[in-house]
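Renewal narrative, Specific Aim 1. Our central claim is that a sequence can be written position by position from structural information alone. The example that follows is taken directly from our test logs and has not been curated for this report. It begins with the structure tokens describing the chain, in the order in which they were read.
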């Protein structure tokens, strides 16, 4: 029996190869791979870096126009994007840095538009496969940098000896490899029969996460892979396994909460972390005092973390903590200082709604994509507690979240195959049921028997 091509029977056809290549390049740019360390080695926004993004913006506009017929079906996602971008745009009226806010609002709008395109065009398993292929290329590039150019691929001063690959620091590499590993696991859990490349990608990306020694990335990896593996097990095991898995997850979650509440310090020390999470708790305490000054507006989208001498509230936090703080290292607190509680509530509502829809569709559209949406959303939430990724104007995690939101609200992709293709499963008759005897249903006229059987 010849195996059917997965693209022809599982979901809508995959986008063309040139679209996949362009999207892969843009996704790599959104991670900051190599471009940031080369054009902005001090991690500052430079004019050269803005010029590098102009071709990417032009390509995004072209992709949107090319697939305009598919985008209109995602109008609920357009409303959500309009609310997010609209709130960021409104913050210009109280921003402490008007020019930076306006510049980053434009970048946020273009990033969200690209996310809308990804969610509406790359349906079913096609988006996880795109992410897997892109992450695999970046993983190989990181290995090249580590062994051929260690001055770029390996930390030299802070975190000396740890791998950072194509990025500024190990945490960025860890987050990107988590995205790649989650996508590879989803490809393995999907009905797509191709298995070799997902296995290679899963092993390589997971190994690079371990090489960074990033505890946050490791936790995100375990959460994402665990959720995908759990749903795959429930699907294969039947009702009994499903009940056992659900109860086991509830017990483990309760035990985890109890351990954290009662032995948080011991757990952190066992993981090699100090109780202040490398100074993060001091940053959070200082920032929450600044949030209290502007709880409903914040300081403007993208305006709080200016360079030294350009942002008075950021300088105050840096002086209080005693070191040059680049960000809040917490997506929710960073959102509070930028847009206040309205921004945090809006993003939290969108995240909760997307997760709920993904759970409700977990054994329909979720199974066809290998439960990528649920795995990514879980890892995204964990990552947001340690990194400033929410509403990032040029950040892959936020783009993929908006894409997951778009995919969640769109109708499930219909199966598509050639009109003359044979059915996947032969339709069986019930016991003791004879075939139809309508003349029009026989190819050569009536087929009546001379002595009908009663």
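The sequence written for that structure reads:
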């Amino acid at each position: 029996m010849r195996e059917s091509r997965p693209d022809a029977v599982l979901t809508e056809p995959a986008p063309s190869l040139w679209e996949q290549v362009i999207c892969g390049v843009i996704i790599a740019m959104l991670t900051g791979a190599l471009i940031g360390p080369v054009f902005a080695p001090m991690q500052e926004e430079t004019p050269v870096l803005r010029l590098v993004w102009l071709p990417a913006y032009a390509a995004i506009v072209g992709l949107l126009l090319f697939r305009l017929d598919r985008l209109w079906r995602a109008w609920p996602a357009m409303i959500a994007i309009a609310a997010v971008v609209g709130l960021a745009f409104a913050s210009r009226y109280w921003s402490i840095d008007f020019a930076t806010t306006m510049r980053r609002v434009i970048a946020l709008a273009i990033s969200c538009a690209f996310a809308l395109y990804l969610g509406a065009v790359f349906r079913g398993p096609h988006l996880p496969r795109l992410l897997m292929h892109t992450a695999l290329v970046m993983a190989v590039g990181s290995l090249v940098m580590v062994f051929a150019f260690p001055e770029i691929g390996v930390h030299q001063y802070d975190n000396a000896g740890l791998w950072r690959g194509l990025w500024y620091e190990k945490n960025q590499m860890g987050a990107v490899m988590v995205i790649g590993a989650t996508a590879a696991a989803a490809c393995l859990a999907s009905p797509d029969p191709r298995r070799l490349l997902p296995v290679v990608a899963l092993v390589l990306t997971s190994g690079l996460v371990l090489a960074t020694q990033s505890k946050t990335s490791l936790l995100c990896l375990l959460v994402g892979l665990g959720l995908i593996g759990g749903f795959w097990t429930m699907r294969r095991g039947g009702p009994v396994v499903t009940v056992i898995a659900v109860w086991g997850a509830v017990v483990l979650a309760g035990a985890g909460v109890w351990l954290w509440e009662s032995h948080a310090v011991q757990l952190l020390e066992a993981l090699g972390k100090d109780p202040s999470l490398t100074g993060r708790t001091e940053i959070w305490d200082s920032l929450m005092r600044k949030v209290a000054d502007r709880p409903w507006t914040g300081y403007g989208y993208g305006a709080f973390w200016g360079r030294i001498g350009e942002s008075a509230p950021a300088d105050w936090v840096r002086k209080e903590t005693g070191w040059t703080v680049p960000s809040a290292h917490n997506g929710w607190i960073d959102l509070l200082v930028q847009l206040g509680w309205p921004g945090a509530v809006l993003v939290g509502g969108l995240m909760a709604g997307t997760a709920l829809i993904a759970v409700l569709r977990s054994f329909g559209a979720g199974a066809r994509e290998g439960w990528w949406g649920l795995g990514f959303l879980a890892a995204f939430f964990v990552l947001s507690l340690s990194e400033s990724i929410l509403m990032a104007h040029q950040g892959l995690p936020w783009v993929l979240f908006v894409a997951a939101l778009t995919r969640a609200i769109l109708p499930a992709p219909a199966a598509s195959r050639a009109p003359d293709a044979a059915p996947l499963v032969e339709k069986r008759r019930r016991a003791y049921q004879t075939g139809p005897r309508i003349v029009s249903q026989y190819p050569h006229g009536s087929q009546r028997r001379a002595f009908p059987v009663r």
